[in-house]
Write a structure and sequence with these properties.
Immunoglobulin-like; 6-stranded mixed beta sheet; signal; metal-binding; repeat; oxidoreductase; Cu-oxidase-like_N
Length: 581
């Protein structure tokens, strides 16, 4: 990795407001993806990782920096890499969303991403974005304040990245390929892991648990990443309170809690004070489960790592376990935790909640199925949908087709509301709304202020929490609740003062979630989907296209010259070449 040094910070004074100006740094990374053997739970398997590491390498930047990452694919399948929660202003070409902003990087090829950190500050993460490849291809992103500036809390004595992950004792990607062919359910993981290790409560793992050594009387910053494939996750440290200060690369009003809950794909910054008796304490987590046990089982693993004080004490005794770690199905603890998330909303870190909404959408998120009538029997294919549309990847990426004005790859008719209204949260075990499969997108004018109410449905009696994520934009979470959304009653509960500013948010089981954002990332083709791998591969996805603004600064950048080609579709690339002439 090479780094160009930054110039000194310049301060400008305008109308009494301090504005920072700095020539940011440029960083370079090489990511080499290749197979490597790893042993966990008494079994060895080969899996795709970056630079021989699991989890993968951490990217370190300051706010305002740019990173170039050259990804070399030495694996056996095409893939992309996505920079989760990074806005990428005017630069969807490096968003890394397979078949939406680019075609996969084929085996034996490489592609360099340009990742611009324009407004993010805190912790984010990167991951592969093709089927379930991100299960082993992921890592953290640490974004420090701009040079010359500090955290909005006392500088910690040190910091620790903890990446929460999922472990399968076999090559789960091969299983997922078969599931995509048959339409059946996905497997349950064999364990959850912290920084690549299951911890003391799993077979053949006790001596390999991740350990973090600390000094007494200090305050440390923990950077949490929920990189699990499907699950939301509770996390706690025995005997220690956590002070939550940031989420998804934005600062929060600090609050103290005995546990945290991370939506799938979410990141969180928490402070911990090492003021307990010197000893060993478990840092532990478990799944927050909201699905129906009638249909699916779940992984009851308690993932664990160990916080160890330096000094003299009895190291033979077992570490303490967090007594206040919520149980797997503790809906109330999850809901109460989310209600405490509020933006810092300070002079140095202001917020701008949209107040002039021009586009309103009401989007149902559903699990469903398509029934197939064969001559001798009936069968079904599982799928998921948004507003009764189950996403189908096109044969070339939507961004190329939109930019080159190519027809036939997508349609502009993603609906603003569902085709049917009914009691969405009732017991609907045998009902189906007969979803349509398609590549339908929603087009937004540059600068539009958008409000979306997501509504979870209970079709097939299979309501589940959904971790809703939008590429290229962050949004304000105005409110959430259980039951069917009521536009008269529920809007009275909205937080318009200091709502959290997120890129990923939980849609409650049998409930609703309201977000607002400004569509100010131009000519972007930005995916909007459930982050959970199970729901995403079944089609709980759509695309928002934001038109160009009125000048070059509000318009898409030109594409880089070496965008990956859709090698499986040579006729398409002939059309792309013609359109570029």
């Amino acid at each position: 990795m090479g780094v160009e040094p930054a110039c000194p910070v310049l301060l400008l004074f305008l109308a009494g407001i301090i504005i920072w100006v700095v020539e940011a740094e440029v960083h370079y990374y090489d990511f080499v993806l290749a197979e490597k053997n790893f042993t966990r739970l008494c079994k060895t398997k080969s899996m795709l990782v970056v630079n021989g590491q699991f989890p993968g390498p951490t990217i370190y930047v300051h706010k305002g920096d740019t990173v170039f990452v050259n990804v070399h694919n030495h694996g056996d399948s095409g893939l992309t890499v996505h920079w989760h929660g990074v806005k990428q202003p005017r630069n969807p070409w490096s968003d890394g969303s397979a078949y939406i902003t680019q075609c996969p990087i084929e085996p034996g090829h490489n592609f360099t991403y340009e990742v611009v950190f324009s407004e993010e500050e805190g912790t984010l993460w990167w991951h592969a974005n093709s089927d379930w490849t991100r299960n082993t291809v992921h890592g953290a992103i640490v974004i420090y304040p701009p040079h010359g500036f500090s955290y909005p809390f006392p500088t910690p004595a040190g910091e620790q990245i903890l990446i929460l992950g999922t472990w399968f004792t076999y090559d789960v990607n091969k299983v997922i390929k078969e599931i995509l062919r048959t339409g059946k359910d996905v497997p349950v993981s064999d364990a959850y892991i912290i920084n690549g290790q299951p911890g003391d409560f799993c077979a053949c793992s006790k001596e390999m648990a991740y350990r973090w050594q600390v000094d007494y009387g200090k305050t440390y910053l923990i950077r949490l990443v929920n990189a699990l494939m499907n699950e939301e996750f509770f996390f706690a440290i025995a005997g220690h309170d956590l002070i939550v200060v940031g989420i998804d690369g934005s600062y929060l009003k600090p609050f103290t809690t005995s546990y945290v809950m991370l939506s799938n794909g979410q990141t969180m910054d928490v402070l911990v004070k090492t003021n307990r008796s010197p000893g060993r304490y478990y840092m532990a987590g478990r799944q927050y489960y909201t699905d129906n046990l009638f249909f699916t089982g779940y992984d009851k693993t308690n993932a664990s790592a160990i916080l160890e004080y330096r000094g003299k004490y009895d190291r033979l005794s077992s570490p303490f376990f967090p007594e206040k770690l919520p149980s797997y199905t503790d809906y109330d603890s999850a809901t109460q935790f989310r209600k405490r998330l509020k933006s810092l909303a300070s002079k140095e870190h202001p917020i701008d909640v949209p107040r002039n909404v021009t586009t309103q959408m009401y989007i149902t998120a559903s699990m469903d199925k398509i029934v197939h009538n064969f001559s001798a029997y009936m069968d079904y294919t599982l799928l998921s949908s948004l507003n009764n549309i189950s996403w189908v990847n096109p044969s070339t990426d939507v961004l190329q087709a939109y930019y080159r004005n190519l027809s036939g790859f997508y349609t502009l008719d993603f609906p603003d509301e569902p085709p049917y209204y009914f009691d969405f949260v009732a017991d609907l075990r045998d009902d189906s709304t007969h979803p349509l499969k398609g590549t339908k997108v929603k087009v937004l004018e540059y600068g539009e202020e958008v409000e979306i109410v997501f509504q979870s449905t209970n079709l097939l009696n299979a309501s589940d929490e959904h971790s809703m994520y939008i590429h290229g934009h962050k949004f304000y979470v105005l409110g959430e609740g259980y039951g069917n959304f009521n536009s008269t009653r529920d809007t009275e509960t909205y937080n318009l003062v200091d709502p959290p500013y997120l890129s990923t948010a939980s849609l409650p089981v049998k409930g609703w979630l309201t977000i607002r954002f400004k569509a100010n990332n131009p000519a972007g083709v930005w995916a909007m989907h459930c982050q959970e791998g199970r729901h995403l591969i079944w089609g709980m996805n759509t695309v928002l296209i934001v038109k160009n603004g009125s000048n070059p600064e509000t318009s898409i950048r030109t594409p880089p010259p070496n965008m990956p080609s859709c090698a499986s579709y040579p006729s398409i690339h002939k059309a792309l070449e013609v359109s570029a002439e």
